[in-house]
Amino acid sequence: ASRFLSAIPSPSFVLLSFASFLCSSCSAAPLSPTSLPPLQSPEVKGPHTLRDCVLRMPVMELVERCGLPNVAQVQYDNLFFDLDDTLYPFSSGIAAACRKNIEEYMTEKLGIEPAIVSDLCGELYRNHGTSLAGLVERGYTIDFDDFHSYVHGRLPYHVLRPDPLLRNLLLSMPQRKWIYTNADEKHAHKCLRRLGLEDCFESIICFETFNVNYPNLSSTTEAIYHDYFDDQNGYSPIANFTKPEKRRVICKPSREAMRHAIKLAGVDPSKTLFFDDSVRNIAGGKAAGLHTVLVGSSKRVEGADYTIESIHNIREAIPGIWQEQEVIFSSSTVPMEAIVVAA
Fold first, then answer.
1. Distance (Å, rounded) from C-alpha 148 to C-alpha 185?
2. How far, in Å, are 188, 236, 318 from residue 313 at the CA level?
3. pLDDT per position as a tens digit, 222-233
4. Disulfide: which of 70, 133, 296, 300 matches 249 by Cβ 3.0-4.6 Å?
5. Alpha-carbon Rg for the chain in angstroms
6. Rounded to 10 degrees, what is the CA torsion of 207, 209, 212, 214?
7. What is the Cα–Cα distance from 33 to 253, expressed in whole angstroms?
8. Cα separation of 51 and 184, whole Å?
């Protein structure tokens, strides 16, 4: 079985196996489990015990000095959280109310026949990520502000209540945290405010972030995207931006949306956890190199590294969020004997 080495700030517990390790920087002979050659370090001079070495040396330095083969460090530095039906449950009724408002918008504003609107709304959502994206793709001219005002402006936000348990969980996480939603920014702020979570996140990545044709695009976002869109993907640099012949809404789970979010936040996807309630979004995140957590289900699905029934189960399901680092050793070269040193 694979070995794990965990370093936790306080108290510190280190699990190591030293029976036949070679110290690549100090000695050509196998290390004894009771002593170690002198370190090139001002803190420890002369012969000393293994305990002295372990308690003074950073974990990854110890790994490097001992020449451990096939070592892979796993550490989460960043967390992306979807909003709707992720930070609060589907049972709140917000999703159902939103779907109802979208269908009414399609009937009243776009003149779509009531008899087909429900099936069409579902088809657009499945095929394009959001109903709005599907409508735009089909050639409907939509004022985004008007759409979001109609769809989200009448939602029963009063059903969302402060969630102190989730707030404490989020604030205890040492990583940088973002909201990553397909919804508009105003809706995101309303939900976070009702949940008491507005100050738990560094920023909100949302509809306005992705869609450069949005009428109220801020200068800050414009500067961020200045050199980001390229001709290969159907865009020109914003400095010379011209409106495409056919408008397009960029949203999860598309490749563009995932890539834009990763670059905008400036994160390493291999050290980023992505929480979402949508199986499609999870698959899109996994394809972009993110670690993924499906929220709202206990059933394991393709593309999900973790599944949790509720966002409140994070600590039990993913304790690694609170661990400084985790190092995985190859089972083929690590001897079975182990020494546990505690401080």
1. 10
2. 22, 43, 8
3. 333 333 333 344
4. 133
5. 25
6. 50
7. 51
8. 54
What DSSP element (H or E) covers 189?
helix 185-195
Q: What is the side-by-side order of every strand in the sheet holding 291-295?
A: 203-205, 176-180, 78-81, 272-276, 291-295, 306-308
Contacts of residue 17, defined as CB under 8 A and 6 or more positions apart, other chains included, come to 3, 329, 334, 335, 336, 337, 338, 339
In contact, 308 and 314? CB cutoff 8 Å = yes
The answer to pTM > 0.70 is no
Q: Between 163 and 16, where is the model more confident? A: 163
pLDDT band at 210 (very low <50, low <70, confident <90, very high): confident
**What does the block give as tokens for 150?**
């109609």
Q: Give the position of tokens 């402060």.
A: 162
CA distance 270 to 290: 6
Name residue 126's amino acid: R
| Residue 81 C-alpha from the chain's centroid | 6
**Which of 235, 94, 91 has the alpha carbon at shortest distance from 156?**
94
Specify the 3-state DSSP secondary structure of 158.
helix
**Could you read off the pLDDT of 162-188 as tens digits, one per residue?**
999 999 999 999 999 999 999 999 999
Q: What angle do CA 285, 286, 288 make, to 5 degrees?
A: 65
Q: Which two tokens stand for residue 87?
A: 């930070």
Encoded tokens for 51: 């305990």
Task: State the number of CA atoms in the 13 A half-sphere of 208 facing the CB.
Answer: 17
Strand partners, 81: 179, 275
At 158, give phi and psi (nearest 5°).
Answer: -65, -20
- Give me 131's structure tokens: 């109903």
How buried is residue 39: exposed, middle or buried, by Cβ count under 10 Å (0-12/13-18/19+)?
Answer: buried
CA atoms of 219 and 225, how far apart (whole Å): 10
Let me know if 279 is exposed, middle or buried by CB neighbors in 10 A (0-12, 13-18, 19+): middle
Non-local (6+) Cβ contacts of 143 within 8 A are none
Distance CA 148, CA 184 (A): 7
